Amino acid sequence: MSLIDLSGNLLEVAFIAYLIATLLIGGSIKSNKPDGAEKRANKWGNLAILVTIIGFLSHIGYFITRWIHSGHAPVSNMFEFTTAFGMFLVGSFILIFFMYRVTALGLVALPIALLIIAWAGMFPQDVTPLVPSLQSHWLTIHVITAALGQSILAISAVAGLIYLLKDVDTKKKGKQRFWLEAILYFLVLILGNIVTSAVFNAVGYEAQYSYVDKNGMSQEIIYNVPAIFGMNESATLTEGAMDPMIEVPAFIHALKLTTVVWAIIVGTILYILIRLIARRRIADMLKPLVKKVNLQLFDEIGYRSVLIGFPVFSLGALVFAMIWAQEAWGRFWGWDPKEVWALITWLFYAAFLHLRLSKGWEGNKSAWLALIGFAIIIFNLVVVNLVIAGLHSYA
Amino acid sequence: MEKNVCVCGHENPVGTKICVNCGRPLTEEAKSQKVLDMKYDGSAIRSKTYNKSIVDKVWNFFSSVKVGVALIIITLVVSSIGTILKQEAFVAAGNEAGRAAFYEDSYGSFGKLYYTLGFSDLYNQIWYLVLVAMLGISIIVASIDRGIPLHKSLKNQRVRRHESFMKRQRVIAEGYVPSSDSSKVLDVVEEKMKKLNYKVRRDGEALLAEKGRFSRYGPYINHVGLIIFLIGVLMHKFPGVYVDESMWIREGETRAIPGMEGYFLENKQFIFETHDNDPTTAQIQQGVNAVAKNYQTDIVLYKQAEDALPGQTDNLEVVKEYSIRVNHPLEHNGYALYQMDFRLNELKEMSFQLTNKETGEALGEVAVDLRNPKKEYVIDENTKVELMEFYPDFSGFNNEGEPQTLSPNPNNPAFIFNMITPEHPDGEISFVAIQQTVEPAGDNTYKMAFSGIDTINMSGLTIRMDKTIPILFVGGFIFLLGLAIGSYWNHRRIWIQQFENGQIRLAAHTNKNWFSIKKDLDAITEHAHLPQYIDQLDDEKDKDKDEENDQEDQKN
Ligand code: HEM
Asked: Per UniProt, what is one GO molecular function of this protein (chain A) (predicted)?
């Protein structure tokens, strides 16, 4: 087995381990009935952590073998970066777990890590050679520290979501109930995105089109999903492939739009199915699982993870980034969209800390803020990389 | 000056919420609190005390954390607007009209509006700078406003606190220790606390154990770092502090370096390499077939001799030879030269054969250096070619039929030759451009037949010097240091008093991380058999929720 195959297999092992660990944690909480079964719960919980750690080690194994194979830190394209982010997220969960010893965190942290890793799998996985600007040790140092910081910050959203699942009254109509369910719906949309891509990949769908780009140049493009939207002046090249249903002007990237719309369609169908089968909101389905969590403690975990993550993020995403930019381009800051969004993330968490200190925004409000912070991080990963092109764009 | 006299006789500055001496709550607000607000230990904050003069009002505005947070959020939102469309710095168009046209052509009327409102160069707008400056002022004012009183109160802490202070802490304990332990309980606590790295002070039967006080200075240190950094950034606007120039240099050329007085650069060669990988999926999808591996300019850096006149280049001294690559700039004397751009295969020389159209016989060859064309190319006594006009970047004819050139760069050279031959001593005139020949006089006997080109690579370099880098470094370092101090350590205090009847009263406070102080409390409670503490905030809400949920369960 070659090193790169081994690397791929280790990643799969990690994925499966996280899946099993999630189920174990679910089980440990379910069995935590007031009939004195706490010991049993602890046993399941500890097993879950053990499996998570095994998965994490395997994940690190993936990272290292791929690093050795490609000769550079595997953080240089969408697949690699996103997979690494998933790894750091699990690592941060393990770190916080050993500080506070609450398995319930894994109930949200692990499924989110699973979604992230599966989503990463939709991008081309081959090893890409580095362009000159990326050939620097600062790539490794900057990206790894920034991703680590982001993932620790993300744990505050994990704690926040659990807090809200328990705290928000889902029996009464209201803004909080609506938005809480909206977040869960969004997670299902991501699942929809992954499912669509997996299904069309499995059947080997491929259609090639030619189009005319913004600069009037003729280009070709391959769709791996049926084309809802066609590129500007699109012409179908693949025999028998369907013509796009709607053509869009050149400044919109029709393939990306098509992907998003597919995700929304399939995700919404999935969501409706879940609602029809369970006959409740997803928030209501999760509520029993978080019944026993201590709100005060989860609020503190949320705050603490921001406190731990913020300096790491500042170091990686701002300081190291500036040092690298100075070395590569002779200016420590260039207002590139990715840089601006790192600054926005940083300002947001600064606001989070100050609101908490001075206005006493704790508990419920703080949990919502943590979720907004995570939304910014995800925006930075997805939209800024794929839609707003800049120096850092991997697309 | 007015004073706020506490029952214990201590005179506190006006605005104090908790008596500095004994800890009794002084304001009505503090008295009504179940758990005291321990922000800045209840000391008098200037902005919360004075609000009369204009100075007070301005001071209070900037010291307000509410205003500070508002400024942070506004900066955040405004900054995000700048990422909707490409910023001007990333637009290739050279002049203002070109940029305006770019936004309208690429993004329609939204683009035009975006450009008109200045969002296309948002981060250089004066109002953006004002916003950041206000943020800076806010940080300075707020830090002085709170930092000084906080420092004073942290320095002068009394060990003995009044009952009304102790009982209004978040974590408290009251009760008795087993009588066998009673006499030496504080000694036992002291010893244990010291093991846990607390500093312990005693005042009779009162004890204060404290840890991590320095962490309270963390936010102030990080704010100082931020201010130093901002000052460094502002200094870019001063002349002589910052140099940002660029130059194009051809292979074989030696040129003065703009912005770097007295230095010259020779470009020995430019190298462009690509990876020889199999194309990846992403490459295939995007139709790219090679990934760049290296951009490199091999150079020699020269310095003018001490006594040389400006521009004199005949006795240059070699400073060093180097290969400038991306991520590996040439550094010298505080200046750095970066590999930024390149142009491959720029036309350098074009050769022609002076050829008889009918017989195909060639009289000789003429090679025109496109950067330094000569007036006349002599082949022999009776044969020569005059270059009457040269259009380096030919773009067509104007209304009067005259050829036009776009730029002085030889992108699309065109020539008007006068061919003097034995048959035509007065010459025949021919206009020659790539794939185009015009003969104004009608039918010429001779033509300039294109016979070859010579190309050359050009390298684009950026020259930068930034004297603020050390300041930015210091600022950034102090910021991170303060951040770490404030985030990774916390200030824990535990007050314990023992009364004559043996009763114990304990109160604990930490500025953050209650989980860990409770672990410390668990340790001493067990060790010294102290009464069990309670957390007064330990959520009633939590209990309510739990009950609510249990009821739901029973219903289901
Ligand atoms: C982006 C800029 C800023 C950053 C990165 C920053 C950073 C911080 C951090 C990390 C803390 C400690 C928070 C905690 O431990 O939970 C803090 C505290 C504080 N900040 Fe800022 N800050 C910024 C701007 C401001 C502004 C504009 C103000 C003005 C009102 C301000 C006023 C304060 C105050 C009063 C404290 C509390 C200090 C204490 O607890 O003794 N900060 N700041």
From this structure: heme binding
Return the C-alpha torsion angle A195, A197, A200, A203, nearest 10: -80
pTM here is 0.88
Average pLDDT, stretch A345-353? 97
Select from A261, A280, A299 the last residue of a domain: A280
As a whole-number percent, the residues of chain A with pLDDT over 70 amount to: 95
Cα–Cα distance between B181 and B504 in angstroms, integer? 12
The rounded Cα A11 to chain-centroid distance in angstroms is 16
Cα distance between the two ends of chain A: 30
Domain extent, residue A235, equals 186-280
Lowest-pLDDT range of A48-62, A105-119, A218-232, B188-202: A218-232
* Same domain flag for A38 and A147: yes
Asked if A256 contacts A218 with a C-beta cutoff of 8 angstroms, the reply is no
Q: Which residues of A touch B292 (CB under 8 A)?
A: 131-132
CA distance A349 to B94: 38
Kindly list the residues from chain B whose CB atom is less than 8 angstroms away from the CB atom of residue A166.
545
For chain A, positions 153-172, list CB contacts with chain B under 8 A: 166-167
Cα B186–B190–B194 angle (5° rounding)? 170
**CA nearest to B326, candidates B335, B337, B338:** B338
Q: What is the pLDDT of residues B114-132, one digit of tens each?
A: 998 889 889 988 999 999 9
- The residue ranges of DSSP E strands in B445-537, in sequence order, are 446-466, 492-498, 503-510, 534-535
Q: Which residues contact A78 (CB under 8 A, 6 or more apart)?
A: A120, A123, A385, A386, A394, A395
Angle among Cα B518, B524, B525 to the nearest 5 degrees reads 80
Ligand 1: residues with CB < 6 A are A 347, 350, 353-354, 357; B 65, 68, 71-72, 135, 138-139, 142, 146, 150, 219, 222-223, 226, 483, 486
ipTM field: 0.91
Which residues 76-115 in chain B show a CB within 8 A of chain A? 76, 79-80, 82-83, 87, 89-90, 106-107
Amino acid at B66: K
Query: Could you tell me if B327 lies within 8 Å of chain A, comparing CB atoms?
Result: yes
Nearest CA to ligand 1 atom 3: A350
pLDDT tens digits, B217-263: 999 999 999 999 999 998 888 888 888 888 999 888 888 898 888 89
Q: Fill in the amino acid letter for B97.
A: A
Report the pLDDT value the prediction gives residue B437, as an integer from 0 to 100. 80
Alpha carbons B542 and B353: distance in angstroms, whole number: 95
B418 class by beta-carbon count within 10 Å (0-12 exposed, 13-18 middle, 19+ buried):
middle
Q: What is the mean pLDDT of chain B?
A: 86
Q: Is A239 on the interface with B (CB under 8 A)?
A: no
- Out of A131, A167, A220, the one facing B291 most closely (by C-beta) is A131
Q: Would you say residue A54 lies in a domain?
A: yes
* B83 contacts A388? CB cut-off 8 A: yes
- A13: part of which helix (H) or strand (E)? helix A3-30
3-class DSSP assignment, residue A386: helix
Tokens of B387: 């270059």
A176 is a domain residue: no
Q: How confident is the model at residue B491, as a pLDDT?
A: 95
pLDDT for residue B525: 92
Lookup: tokens for A1 = 């087995």
Nearest to A195 by CA among A274, A286, A298: A274
B116 touches B154 (CB < 8 A): no
Count of the separate structural domains present in chain A: 2
Tell me the domains of chain B and their CATH numbers. 45-125+139-145 (no CATH), 166-212+490-555 (3.30.160.110), 242-466 (no CATH)
